[in-house]
Fold this protein.
Amino acid sequence: MSLQKICSLFLMLFIILGLSSCNTNESIDDWTSQTYEKQIDVPDEYLVSSGTLIVATSPDFSPYEFKDLSKSGLSQYQGADIYLANYLAQTLGLSLNIVESSFDGLITQLNTGKADIVLAGLSYSESREENYTFTDVYYDSSEENGQVLITLTENLTKYNSFESLNQESVNIGCQTVSIQEELTKNQLPNATRSQVDKIENGVLRLKKGELDVLALSKVNAETVIASDSSLIIIDGFVFDDDIYQGTRGLLEKNNPLATYINEAIKLMPENAYADWLAASQAYVANLGIGDASSLNFFERFGLLLGDYGILFLQGTGITLALSAITVLFGTIIALILQLIRKSRFLAVRSIGNVYVEFVRGIPLLLLLWLLYMIAPASWPSYISVSIALFLNSGAYVAEIIRGGILAVDKGQYEAARTLGLSRFQTAKKIIYPQATKKILPALGNEFVALIKETSLASVFFIGDLMTVKNNITSITYLSIEPFIIVGIIYFALTFSTTKLIKHFELKMEA
């Protein structure tokens, strides 16, 4: 297959995704236009950024916080906690900024000074209170909602009582470090517990049969069941929700800002959060594709392309941009490292060697987190992510270049010097051209790997393909179909890159 045909097929994939996209989800309520009267003055020294309330959240937890990817800016964030953030900011006379993170990375936002408060449907726990400051309760769901268990409809008669659930053979899924984990540990002590990182992944494991039941808040359970009627709430067992002390925000330990936020919470209109939560549930239902259990695979696949094709296309663009930046600056760093490691001075060579060995010796995800944590709070997450990716790439490309240079026969260098060529001329005209031919296949593999490695950036919600997939899954509770779509796109990207590199290889051999 010629390069022209490959590029044409790749372009056709983009066009299909774009034309099939008829995302008509409309906002039920544009919360950014809601106004509240300023009632409290907050000293700037209590804020991470003067005049701004920075809220950290994990927008993959509908209906509390999620994203409408058909929008941009602040309006793309939706959910009861987002509406609360808007209310708090205006009541405190501040502008609002939202910082995204995975749920297990939210605490890092506080520790690194990137956020003033975490709003993510958090419940009280003693361990958290020891190290952080909770706000007052802004929502108490114990009376009308509480915590429940869901299972497959066909298994309801099997798991519908304390006796049937409190057995070692029953595998109960619970989100990591959640109130559901504590409740199942205390009230179903004999059951086996399995941690899940996200609700949608727990739902997938439940439907695959890896879990027998899944513990959720009733609000989340109702949202899940609305998208899949093959699941049902277990009504024969009710948690004694004695450890639940309401939903709260979280701040750094002894942060004086908590006092002002608590004042704003006391001034909240009656039932405001419950109203926001109801509006959020309706919004999620509007964004989703309805009851997925009534559709076959191809129908679900088609609906996802129809509703979210343009979003996959946008995610592809960001993935390509991130890959291009990584390749460009990674190659520049590799060339600089190569010069450093060829220095006549031992100290200079050692710096280059230590850098390469250190970067190659730690996982990329760890490097991403390290760069993210030490980056200035004012930096957008995509900057630290991009830096981490090309610093990582530079170390590997430097080794590839070194290997290519070593593969050139030493006699070539000696012959060039004998002819009177300088070191620079020898490298430019003799060594590097031959080394480039030898390293091109390895560089091609590295560039292909880079495209796939950008998927790790989804931990920081920067809009790449995997971020799009995660956001879509969080509102549709479909995992397999979005994964397949993303997999096809990644394959198209990597296959095209491979053929492009092969094209240049053939040209250089000609």
Remarks:
- Confidence is low (pLDDT under 50) at residues 3-28.
- The chain is about 55% helix and 10% strand.
- The longest strand covers residues 117-123.
- Residues 177 and 453 are 28 Å apart (CA to CA).
